[in-house]
Amino acid sequence: MSEKVVVVGGGLAGLSAAARLAYHGYEVTLLEKAPKLGGRAITIPMKGFNFNFGAHAIYARDKSVLRKYEHELNLKVNWRDFSPKKAYYDLGSFTTPMPSTLERLFQTKILDNKNKLRFAYEVIKTLAHIERGEDGVPIGEYLKKEPEPLRDLLLTLASSNFFTNEPEKIPSPLFFQYYSRLFATHHAVAYIGGGWQSIVDGFADILTKNGGRILTKEKVQQVETEDNRVTAVHGKDTVYHADHFIFCIPPKELLTLFGETRFAPLFEEYNRYVPNQVVVYDVGLSKRIESPYTYIYHKGERVFITDISYYDETCIPEGGQLMQAVAYLTQEEIEQNKADEKVATIESVYDKHFPGWRDVLVAKRISKRATVQEIKCIDDQRLMPTKFYSIANAYFAGDWCQGEGQLSELSFSSAYNVTNRILAHRGEEHMGD
Ligand SMILES: Cc1cc2nc3c(=O)[nH]c(=O)nc-3n(C[C@H](O)[C@H](O)[C@H](O)COP(=O)(O)OP(=O)(O)OC[C@H]3O[C@@H](n4cnc5c(N)ncnc54)[C@H](O)[C@@H]3O)c2cc1C
Fold it and tell me: Do 369 and 283 belong to one domain?
């Protein structure tokens, strides 16, 4: 008899966990409250364009957990490598290559020659784990020993990889852990041909082909517990029983679900933490704007634009172009409702680098408070464990949980770790039957 698993939440974490366990012979039911799968990786079609709610840059591609899903489950991933030759920094009065490769480091004007050497030395020290940071010291403070231009560049890099306007607040050990992983790869950034939709469809396909069930518009509203176990979850009209439960829903949803149980205090801490939010402004154009850039980061404004359609031509009608601009927000800016100002700033960056975009604009999508990561990795904020000692058969995954990397990598890796744990105890649930 196969073990039963209920997965709550059909975002990237829930889908990948559900697909992997179904593939390994578990009887899996996935419950998603929305009409469509994907969560924050949902694809929104509009006037012939496919807007991804969140973009699909995969950092540290060679080491990404997606590679494990590719090999193990035969998930199809159409990797599209980032084009370093088309990536630039806008420093206000001039643009200069982004130092994403050794060749580009030589070409860039963001550092003088002496600091270029120091930068290369920093990379080597990070790779060799000579630089590890210090517990309790944020990276901004830790890097004060470095010359200002070098410190500034390292913080600028962190802004883009952590999607934050407050890179100086990233814990220094996390910073070096992240970059030792990223610098060790041949493909630091890659996109996905077919966008997130291809990954969502891929996992859903593996799940259903292996006997799994997907139920959308099924919001889980209550959990039943007994002693140290979850015994069931309640949907709209149905109660789902299982041996294992994987909750791939954010901490605020978890607190609501577990609010009436003795486990509620476990989730309270993670509800207090602030999410990582940005302003996103996608534009769908009827024809391409000629430009030397597929990626440009305006350092002063902390806004970056990616030509998504350069990497994923399935998101546009023939001859069109789809670009995504992201403006980072500080917590203060969020509290002071500065999103409207950011929208105007983004438009000015589009004007500067893609002149004429307004004349060929067909569709746009603006999100003034998009949650890129449910728990932002700054200060003393901690990611949630994937398992608590006091609940025997409940597991947790998502970009608010402990795992590798940042953003979707946390969703995929926490889901992978959770399924590893379930697979390691295979059969034990029925030993007493
Ligand atoms: C603008 C933007 C840009 C981004 N860019 C990148 C990028 O370039 N690279 C990258 O790696 N990542 C990026 N991300 C982040 C990435 O999109 C997320 O990390 C990832 O999609 C999170 O997936 P998840 O499954 O962990 O969580 P979610 O997507 O939040 O999934 C949770 C799911 O649970 C469902 N749910 C909630 N409550 C219930 C309930 N009670 N019952 C049933 N279902 C429920 C929700 O509807 C949702 O589908 C970006 C995000 C944004 C917003």
Answer: yes
Sign of torsion over alpha carbons 238, 244, 246, 247: positive
Least Cα distance to 15 among 49, 52, 42, 55 occurs for 42
Q: How far is the CA of 1 from the centre of ligand 1 (A)?
A: 33
Query: How many whole angstroms separate alpha carbon 385 and alpha carbon 405?
Result: 15
Q: Which residue has the tokens 């996103």?
A: 280
The whole-number average pLDDT for the span 361-375 is 95
Q: How far apart are CA 13 and CA 254, in angstroms?
A: 15
- Same domain, yes or no: 105 and 149: yes
CATH number (domain holding residue 334): 3.90.660.50
Give the three-state DSSP class for 258: helix
Q: Which band of pLDDT confidence, cut at 50, 70 and 90, is reported for residue 430?
A: low
- Mapping DSSP to helix (H, G, I), strand (E, B) and coil, where does residue 330 land? coil
Per-residue pLDDT band for 426 (boundaries 50, 70, 90) equals confident
In a domain, 94, yes or no: no
Tokens describing residue 7: 């997965």
**Is 431 a residue whose pLDDT tops 80?**
no
Q: What is the C-alpha to C-alpha distance for residues 365 and 53, in angstroms, rounded to an integer?
A: 9
Report which of residues 303 and 426 the model is more confident about. 303
Q: Which of 165, 186, 207 is the last residue of a domain?
A: 186
pLDDT per position as a tens digit, 77-86:
999 999 889 9
Percentages of the chain per state (helix, strand, coil), in multiples of 5:
40, 25, 35
Same domain? For 383 and 236 the reply is: yes
Q: Which residues line ligand 1 (CB under 6 A)?
A: 8-14, 31-34, 39-41, 53-58, 219-220, 248-250, 253, 278, 280, 370-373, 398-399, 407-409, 411
Q: What is the mean pLDDT of residues 9-13?
A: 98
